[in-house]
Amino acid sequence: MTSILLPDSEAEIEAILADAAATGSPIAIHGGGSRDIGRPVQAARMLSTRAMTGVTLYEPSELVLSARAGTPLVEIEALLDQNRQRLAFEPIDYRGLLGTKGEPTIGGVTASNASGPRRIQAGAARDHLIGVRATTGRGETIKSGGRVMKNVTGYDFVKLLAGSWGTLGVLTEVTYKLLPKAETETTLVFEGLDDVRAVEAMTTALGTPFEITGAAHLPGAPSKTLLRFEGFANSCEYRTARLRDLLAAFGDAEAVRDEDSADLWRAIRDVSPLEAREDEVVWRISVKPTDGPAVAARLRAELGARCFFDWSGGLVWTAIAGPADGGGASVRNLMAALGGHATMIRAPHGLRAAISPFQPESPAVTAITHRIRESFDPAGILNPGRMG
């Protein structure tokens, strides 16, 4: 049975990791337990940061917030909402898709470089992360960045640690720049477009100056193609009207506003269309938007896959049932041909142990990655194999 360690200070984490490094004992690193992604880590002990809670700095006028890694995301979002501010990258909540019961934390969001539909306009978590504190596999706490971007000098450990899935260090505190919350939002919904036409409509919209903050396509009967606007009410009305006229060739579009619009994008963000069948393996496939329809068509024809599109077609969420490898061979072959990137997000424990869930790296990148991990974690104790 795995024992769970719940340190509530950096000093405790340093002592735990120093001892683990000295004895060569691997440790599984967890936040709130809401996103079990990657290869299972074989370790007798699990270190969870969920006791490392609390906002340590919040200056609304400066649009900056620092919090300990185990702070629940819901608490941070509630605090920001009081001042009509937000984390602009719209972090995904995996609990519905993965069937997990944990609580998403700001450290988990950072370690996984989480992002949602707004990434096409605002970027991912690492693009808003300006400071970190983390304890390495040597049992040493490092600090990088600060409260403003100009403090990021020398090695950019801030960006390096974002998306490292606990393999380089245990995050203890993170600092994010914030953005004001939009006054209102409106989504234009086009019905009946096939995948190719939908991508054409979405990429056309993104090529305009009308600041689209979400572009998704849900195949079905009928299909729905969604384009989101956010901002001041008058601005949203103007941009909605202009884009509706510009895209008239794609059909009449219904305008969905405010909370109804937010519900649509919450479902896209959390991959709700693919929650229903737990027997399916779910892949997150990133390609050029114009390649998205071909990827979906190939996987439907070969494997009967269910798919939908985010990021104007550049992100293809795919659910596959049947093959013993969860469609891994077909997905990897497609990525090799197209130059894309695929991550196995949901799969049985045994399949995640047998097949690397993350996109295989080239030999040159693998060598660089190995050297970086050796520098941060020479004994190889932090989430060994998680990204292997």
From TrEMBL:
Which species is listed as the source?
Kaistia soli DSM 19436
Please name the GO terms that the record assigns under molecular function: FAD binding; oxidoreductase activity
Per its UniProt record, what SUPFAM superfamilies does this chain match? FAD-binding/transporter-associated domain-like (SSF56176), FAD-linked oxidases, C-terminal domain (SSF55103)
- Alphabetic keyword roster: FAD, Flavoprotein, Oxidoreductase
Q: Can you say what this protein is called?
A: Glycolate oxidase FAD binding subunit
Taxonomy, superkingdom: Bacteria
InterPro entries reported for this sequence? FAD-bd_oxidored_4_C, FAD-bd_PCMH, FAD-bd_PCMH-like_sf, FAD-bd_PCMH_sub2, FAD-linked_Oxase-like_C, Oxid_FAD_bind_N
The upper taxonomy is: Bacteria, Pseudomonadati, Pseudomonadota, Alphaproteobacteria, Hyphomicrobiales
Asked if the keyword Coiled coil belongs to this entry, the reply reads no
UniProt entry tagged with the keyword Oxidoreductase:
yes
Q: Which Gene3D superfamilies match?
A: 3.30.465.10
Q: Which cofactor does it need?
A: FAD
Report domain FAD-binding PCMH-type positions.
1-181
